[in-house]
Automatic annotation (TrEMBL), chain B:
InterPro entries with a match to the protein in the record: BOL2 (IPR045115), BolA (IPR002634), BolA-like_sf (IPR036065)
Protein name as catalogued: BolA-like protein
Gene3D superfamilies in the cross-refs: BolA-like (3.30.300.90)
Pfam families noted in UniProt: BolA
GO cellular component: cytosol; nucleus
Amino acid sequence: GGGVAGGLRPELKEAIDQYVASNKVVLFMKGSKLFPQCGFSNTCVQILNVLNVPYETVNILEDEDLRQGMKEYSKWPTFPQLYVDKEFIGGCDIMIELYQNGELQEIVEKALVS
Amino acid sequence: MAVSKEQVESVLKEKLQPTNLVVEDTSGGCGASFDVKIASPLFAGKRVLERHRMVNSALTEELKSIHALTIKPVTPEQWVE
């Protein structure tokens, strides 16, 4: 719930821009990679673990501003949200689909060598 | 505001012209949660992210109170029962 008024603050947008620019693979999730607090977030962490690539996680449960801001930044209503090389890839269903058809591995590997 | 399975179905039918649609209520006590399998000709030629965005934007209002949503968007040709 919450009905937070729209408007992604410019400082927050800039901070997110910088974060996704300096980390190739970032999962914005509920909980952390060591302690996911939702089944969907856990699934995504497991996929990234299987891909065996370096990645960062950001716990959106610890920051309500970030949580609302990310929804607007990504134009995506739910978490987790995966970013690879500054680009929004999708949520959990998309990650599963791209993982199963091999595209996720390609996307991530391409990003890591770029 | 609680969201019902029927509400999700009627919004998707109205906005996405599905040839096949299965909406399941999967909430296990933690709030409204749905599993949506949808086939629509509108998904043809669209990448997976775009297809999901179309479903999300059709359900913008409902998503304010839906806790979790699983979406499987396919074209009518890709639909498997």
